Amino acid sequence: MTEQPSQCAKCGACTVVCPVFQATGRESHSARGRLHLLEHLDPARASTAFAEILSQCLLCGACRSACSRGLDPPARFIDARKQLEKIAGHHVLLRAITQKALGNPTLLATITTLGLPLLELLPADSGLRLRLGLPREGISADPALVEMSENESAAPVLAFFPGCYATHLHTKIITATKQIAAAFTGDVPLIPKQISCCGLAAENGGDTATAQRLAKQNIMAFSENTLPILTSCASCYSQLRRYPQLFEDDPEWRDKAERFAVRLVEFSTFVAQAMKAEPTFRFADSAAMRTVVYHDPCHLRFHSQTTSPPRDILRAIPGLRLAELPDGPQCCGQGGLFHLAQPEIAGKIRNRLLNQLEQTAPDLITTTCSGCLIHIRQGLDREPTQPEVRHLAILLAELL
Ligand code: SF4
Ligand code: SF4
To answer: Average of pLDDT values for 312-330?
Structure first.
């Protein structure tokens, strides 16, 4: 039976870990406050207030990991976003968020620096459009599919889902991930033709129909074999794992989604396991001693509890000194669409992280989440001295 907002014990354990509550101190910004409002608000009569409340959550999952009642508040907020979509109209939340982003000079400046011609190549359905604050106007009925190159190996042992950011804006991540995979398996992983966006942004915006359509496209794209599916983006990995939940009411597709989800292999987990299986394998020494901070994406830290593998890898590389932030891992404030809907709060959350990074003074920051990479880089752009920010695959490929 689906849990109800009224099951919240109001104990407040979630407020201690909620990045939004920590940034604002407002009760309505905590899971407890939001559940209380959901319990008492009639969404049919309060769609604007409802949209605002729902857009003030990162869906980071920290409250779920701390909840004394074992509740899943982010799942309730996603349900409520779907409800809002039904009541207030198609794409209502996404439209509101995009409008807000278009009025934000900082976000528009970011888009400009990325280069318009490059962004024009982004498929209309790419969640990256929303993350960067690009309008969704002109979305065609048929998904604009990603046409990837033919596989370079005759007998691949791994399939590979790179995600929109690596495919359209940072292809070096694809090259690096292929090199790492080939170093351990002897083969270049297969990227099927016609993969699409993972659908995270669509589902977070309450657009279940688009999220399901994109999920079906990906499930079909990988259905020609049963290879493990390597994923180099933490956010995409988290969303791909959610596919069975997307088809709760559709037994046929739920079954296909379950068979798809069990094949997923997160990048750092793959590398850490491969290193254990080949004890003689060594990454090259880092040329000079460098201090590195691993940034935990919430999508790995709270959604799949993946925190040790990247640290195990980095500790095993001579010349790298792994440092932790004084207050432990911190959310960066990106949260899929959150930084577009709530730029001021997202900025406050990121500033807290930047402050912790400043105290740690790393030479290098590494992570595996496309959203975190974009958001942290944007924040550091304003700092006089900037540590490098690199995807873990790129860092490791340079040390092969
Ligand atoms: S999912 Fe994250 S941001 Fe949202 S209420 Fe929970 S802890 Fe706060
Ligand atoms: S930790 Fe769980 S039960 Fe306690 S206030 Fe937060 S959501 Fe409610």
So the answer is: 95
CATH for 281: 3.40.50.11810
**337 shares a domain with 263:** no
Domain termination site, one of 253, 269, 285: 269
> Residue 154 class from Cβ within 10 Å (0-12 exposed, 13-18 middle, 19+ buried)?
exposed
Whether the per-residue pLDDT at 140 is higher than 50: the answer is no
Q: Which atom of ligand 1 is nearest to the CA of 335?
A: 3
Cα(40)–Cα(78) distance, integer angstroms: 17
3-state SS class at 229? strand
Q: Could you tell me the CA-to-CA distances from 17 to 66, 68, 150, 225 in Å, in that order?
A: 7, 13, 45, 41
377-386: long-range contacts (C-beta < 8 A, 24 or more apart)?
Answer: 378/106, 378/110, 379/332, 379/347, 379/350, 379/351, 379/353, 379/354, 380/354, 383/354, 383/358
Give the list of residues 6+ apart from residue 165 with CB closer than 8 angstroms, or none: 128, 173, 233, 370, 371, 373, 374
Residue 157 CB neighbours (<10 A): 15
Dihedral sign from CA coordinates of 182, 187, 193, 196: negative
Q: How far is the CA of 107 from the centre of ligand 2 (A)?
A: 34
Q: Residue of the nearest CA to atom 6 in ligand 2? A: 14
| Rounded Cα gap, residues 247 and 211, in angstroms | 10
Q: What is the pTM of this model?
A: 0.86
Distance 345 CA to ligand 2 centre (A): 22
* Closest atom, ligand 1, to C-alpha of 62: 7
Same domain for 244 and 339, yes or no, is no
What is the number of the ligand 2 atom nearest to the C-alpha of 69? Answer: 3
Residues with Cβ within 8 Å of residue 191, at least 6 apart in sequence: 148, 149, 151, 159, 160, 161, 162, 174
54 versus 66: the higher-pLDDT residue is 66
Span of 22-26, 153-157, 266-270 with lowest mean pLDDT: 153-157
Q: For 273-314, write each residue's pLDDT tens digit.
A: 999 998 888 888 877 789 999 999 999 999 999 999 999 999
